[in-house]
TrEMBL record:
A GO MF term: acyltransferase activity
Protein name according to UniProt: GNAT family N-acetyltransferase
UniProt KW Transcription regulation keyword: no
Source organism phylogeny: Bacteria, Pseudomonadati, Pseudomonadota, Betaproteobacteria, Burkholderiales
Record carries keyword Transferase: yes
Coiled coil: none
Amino acid sequence: MTTPTLAPVADADFEAMLALRIEALRESLERLGRFNPDVARARLKSQFRPEWMQHLVVNGERVGYFTVEPREGELRLHHLYVKPAAQGQGVGAWVLDRIKAQGRPITLAALRDSRANDFYRRHGFRVVEEQDFDIEYRWEAFA
């Protein structure tokens, strides 16, 4: 794996990040009959906080991004998207390792029936709630 580097996110990055989010989620959402670009735009817009976001760059190309919201006593991972062509190369695991290194509990939601669920379970996240469209996960740091 080529180790990614991080780059800051600016307001002007919104459209490129939306395109990446759609590219990363499209297959899962289409399989579930839930693909809607307008909904994707609205969801990203509602959680677009550049100060919590980082681009993932490999060999000079933005291949993904993630968003970590600091909360009281924990971190909330809102987004971890990697372009399909860059998936399976350790980029997502590298991000989780960086977040876990902060030693705080991590919560997140993954789309039900997406491959992301296997990814998060492999990395020690446990299911805490199953909802209609998402599954809520939590990871605890153990001393």
